[in-house]
Amino acid sequence: MRGDTGTRIFRSTVIAIAFIAAWMTTAFAHAASIQETIQQVQPKMVKIYGAGGLRGLEAYQTGFLISPEGHVLTIFSHVLDSDSITAVLADGRKFEAKLLGADPHLEIAVLKIEAADLPYFDLSQAAKPAVGERILAFSNVFGVAMGDEPVSVQRGTISVATRLEARLGAFETTYRGQVYVLDVTTNNSGAAGGALVTRRGELLGMLGKELRNATNNTWLNYAIPIPMLLRSVEEIRAGKFVAQRDTETVRKPDRPLNLSMLGISLVPDILERTPPYVDHVRPGSPAEKNGIQPDDLVLLLGDRLVQSCKGLIADLEVIDENDEVKLTLLRGQDLVEVTLRRDTKETPTTTPRQP
Amino acid sequence: MIICNKAFTVQADVGCDFWKRRTVFLAVFRLFVLASVWMSLFCSHRVLCGAEAELDAAERAAIASAVERVVPSVVRIETIGGLEHVGQMALGTGATTGLIVDPDGYIISSAFNFINKPSSILVRLADGSRKPATLVATDHARMLVLLKIETSKALPVCEIVPSSEMRIGQWAIAVGRTFDGVQPNMTVGILSAVGRIWGKAIQTDAVVSPNNYGGPLIDIRGHVLGVIVPLSPEATDEVAGYEWYDSGIGFAIPADHIQKILPRLKKGENLEPGILGIGIKGPNLYTGEPVIAACPPRAPAFAAGVRSGDRVVEVDGRKIRRAVEIREEIGRCYAGDTMHLVLERDKKTVVADIELAAKLDPYQQGFLGILPMRDNVGEGVVVRYVYPESPAAKAGIVPGDVLVALDEKPISDRFDLRESLVGCEAGESIALEFRHGDVAHSAKIALASLPEGLPPAELPAAHGKAPAKGKRASLAVGAMPFKIAEYSNDAWIYVPRSCQEGIAPGILMELHGPNGFDWQELLAVWKPICDRFDLILIAPKANDTAQWMPHELGLIDRLLADVMEKYSADPTRVVLFGQDSGGAMAFAAASHNRDAIRGVAAVDAMPMNPLGENEPLNRLAIYSANAKKSRIAASIDAAIAAMRAVKIPVTVKPLGEIPRAMNSEELMELARWIDMLDQI
Fold first, then answer.
1. Contact assignment for B25 to A10 by CB distance below 8 Å
2. What is the complex's ipTM, to 2 decimals?
3. Residue of B nearest to A35 (CA)
């Protein structure tokens, strides 16, 4: 009986060890906890000091290491507008940083400090967040961290991965592209250039400058995804940087379309936001041929919502006079879609082009 | 012993085998211990971390699937046209969020999203299709709107969490659809509180902002807790609560409440906050006893039999211990709802069923119908004049009588009586004790409303021969310039000699019209009037003679304050007088400084902005002198009606056909009107 007991103990012990070992392996295979992530990320963060003070602008921002030999990715701002930029690492070491180059369009810059064997983020390994991704944001927000103090960590969730609306004036930034919107107040003074990581420590993006959403008068908390920055960073590091042309910003054609070319006149623009009701349709015009009627309300130009007479006129300015446009109209309670273009045979409303 | 020995042998025998095995066991045990130590040294926290990482992954998956469940019911709302500003706040044009609450195409959203009063509304469904929407109804108490779109197929509706199942601290995820519209946006937090904003809302720390107002607040299963709205405990305007965006304090209206009111909203019924019309005793709502301090006849509670002094015992089945609980119960209800009150009055139980009102009639000051003597001789108020047909006249009060007690409380002077009557509105009854000669009388008197008639041709003197307060010979009297250091404006005053005898003067400030004025001419007209009626005349000059500027309201305030203090003026008789633009400025000043100004006398002028209702402590009376052919005669008539609607008494003086200045006889009559402003 006792022998059996001993064997059983022996067996169960072996099983227990095997089980614990297996569990351990799983534990190793799994990514780290928040505490571990923080420990692992902090040494890669850089506190950056430079120009400021004028007009109450802060003289500090955040960056992070992207190579073992001391390349630092940060935001391109007035702080870097100085002969002397100081980078302070997590261990308190202070370096004079050199501005390698900047992309004024993406508003990013790469700095270089003379050091080696530094912990760093590998930009090519940047992760893509899942829906509901829980995140950590690292930045020297309000410049609270000094010397060897670690930068501040905030936790939150990615609200949505979206694009900044390209409509002029919606966001006061030159950046037009994907952003991760966050549900935590990350984007305050000094935070720009900070790192956004998953709870497992994978780099997701770089915190952007303070940005107001003019469409609803709220402050936007966001980070720019690393893949959006990759090419510019590589080119800056290779020393062959050419400021990236913006393929997404709206370029005005030389000869834009206008409503009179289509044969539409709107109601007089007298209110703050006069709804773009059609007042009159010129006989024989493309508008009439396509069945546009007085009192139709222009709702969409292409896929873009038109909110006022002024808005419609402004939006047409980015369309070439010879391009086709799709208008969605509200007639009573029905939506009517019309695709039309300028009728070149009709009496031209602009002087013909010189050959 | 043998037994023992045998037993031992047997044991030893077995033991031998046992020990062999034990060695193995020990070896294994040691290994285990070593392994444990090694593990604990090197990876015990990693084991923990693993659990945490799994939790993290599980959280992420749970959030994603919860959001996924409601996404088909979350719509994006776009608006066309509308205002750019509401008050000081610039309004955005950005997209907002709504939640489908009925398969037939009904969508709930936050009223905040429609304060710009857009001319058209478009709803973009989860599948990307756009539909025009109409606004069906608004819940003004909870700042929700109901929209309707036409749909041929049934739209998806979410499951809801009943209020009774909500647990503070549970997950709460706020969902909006305001960015590109393809992906919903979410913020994550917990349910922070229930029963907020007088029982109307639940609270979350998930950040809420215009990015998700109108969207659902959901639990971790994807069931709807409520619909997100900006709210504020005190302010009730349509942008109240917006200033708290992204602060960690966010509100939502519980989903089961929305279900309850949906049938009413669908019928197009706008819901308003309900008003009971009672005032509660004491300054602190939270510690105060639930005793009703005021219940004016215009209140719905009064009509249902509630009286001041009643103690509220129960509201709609809830036992009431503190004043604040009554307010919470009112907060839960709408205008048109009926509240069941159990009250205690004189140790007896009284029951009242009250239909809440959307609006109360404005406050209407009660009026006894006397003018007091201004020289105070001992206790009580000596009657100077009795208005014909007034409640006082009907009660048999005649000039010379002394009013001694109101509702069993002795009256010390005319200011005391005036103040005591503040809470008594027209229609309410008071118990008055008065003395006629040596005979004491008492009467129950129903108060009337403030009079609007022109003054009588002759008034008895306001004070006797002996001055009340002793002489003040050092006071400067007569005509003189009067300057306020911070203002470059010129101003003059005329102070009657009676001020030196300790008689408190009234104040008349004349605000000139577009042609300015000549001080000597003005003085010639007013001096005899001022002397007779104890009035100080103040005449400031606008910086630009042609027009008064808004910043000059400050000058008027300062002139009044300085003169009132220096000459101990009677606060019940402070009047601004002006013709045309001067009259408009007088109205503006009165509206700006209700604390000091008791009357406006305007010739062919009207207020640019409507005046608020008459205030109990800061009464205002209007004297409106107009010519039939005044350029703005029609507007003046409308303005008079508007002022009367808010229970500000307006005395109308016709000035014939053609617009003109008032003559000296008419000014004398105006002075008598001013002289009667200390009416009680």
1. yes
2. 0.71
3. B49
